[in-house]
Write a structure and sequence with these properties.
318 residues, 2 domains, alpha/beta, 13 strands, two-stranded parallel ribbon, UDP-galactose 4-epimerase, domain 1, Rossmann fold
């Protein structure tokens, strides 16, 4: 039986990956600071602990896993990443986790290790025009991410790929673009835009209003978690390291995202634009490379995933 380790298995993407791997017949060990918040883990072995502790990390990576998925990080949405209040924790905590996981994998002769980087590594100067952002993989340098979160992710990409060059690790690196879906943060300050918008719409009375940070004309693309997992496993099991974008190329404004959620809810609401942390002006996944290298690209319409996410968040409010 193939064995997999999922680091960050108590989080949104990690908990979904545990289920995916179990469905594929893997024996799965999950590790995180906490159990999944919104559903029971089905990992064969789930260990609660801190991967910032190198001794604990070595105890977890106690065998040669066939696949290791490293999702564990200190992260959140714009309200967490762009305020500046969490920069030191983001840099220190995520950096320590990645250093420890790689060192332990190398010492156990674990080969195939996936790392979840982020579209936040892309230079701010290429994302000022909301209608024409440049997020092609080769545009990452000269580097100028708009947050310490992006800088840490860029450093860790280089860390994983240097362990590949020098230590025999078979690293696989993906740059995620706004992954969303059920069973993720939606009301704790770490939620991303789809969950935040769905919560606001679900809580508003028909004819009322919801708050939108900024003018709502900033653009993004959002990828449903099932397609994220498909792209992740395809990359991990390929013979190509990346880095590669894993994201949707269906770009929308935040105002349009809110309109979609209102249509799903059957509500007419006024958008009240307020000051708030925004990030770059425009971002969209460039999927030419993933189609060229893996023969696959995400194609599920945003509305389908948003409907499922809205329904789940609405169920949490009852």
């Amino acid at each position: 039986m193939l064995k997999a380790l999922v680091c960050g298995a108590g989080g949104f993407i990690g908990s979904h990956m545990v289920k995916r791997l179990k469905d594929e017949g893997f024996w799965v060990r999950g590790v995180d600071l906490k159990f999944p918040q919104f559903w029971e883990t089905i990992a064969d072995d789930f260990v609660v602990g801190d991967l910032r502790d190198s001794h604990f990390c070595k105890e977890i990576i106690d065998r040669r896993f066939d696949e290791v998925y490293q999702f564990a990080a200190d992260m959140g949405g714009a309200g967490f990443v762009f305020t500046g209040e969490n920069d030191a924790d983001i840099m220190h905590n995520s950096g320590m986790i990645n250093l420890n996981v790689l060192d332990a994998c190398w010492k156990r002769n674990v080969k195939r290790v996936f790392y979840s980087s982020s579209a936040c590594i892309y230079p701010e100067y290429n994302q000022m025009d909301p209608d024409n952002p440049n997020c092609a993989e080769d545009s990452a340098y000269p580097a100028q991410p708009d947050s310490e979160y992006g800088w840490e992710k860029l450093f860790s990409e280089r860390l994983f790929l240097s362990f590949q060059r020098n230590k025999g690790i078979e690293a696989r690196v993906a740059r995620y673009h706004n992954i969303f879906g059920p069973f993720g943060s939606w009301n704790d300050g770490r939620e991303k835009a789809p969950a935040a918008i769905c919560r606001k719409v679900a809580m508003a009375k028909d004819g009322g209003e919801i708050e939108i940070w900024g003018d709502g004309m900033q653009t993004r693309s959002f990828l449903f978690v099932d397609e994220c997992l498909e792209g992740t496993t395809r990359l991990t099991r390929s013979e190509w390291s990346g880095p590669v974008n894993i994201g949707s190329d269906e770009m929308v404004t935040i105002n349009q995202l809110a309109d979609m959620a209102m249509d799903i809810a059957g509500k007419k609401l006024t958008k009240k634009h307020i000051a708030g942390p925004l990030g770059v002006r425009g971002r969209n996944s460039d999927n030419n490379m993933i189609e060229k290298k893996l023969g696959w690209r995400p194609n599920r319409p945003l509305i389908e995933g948003l409907e499922k996410t809205y329904q789940w968040i609405e169920s949490q409010l009852t």
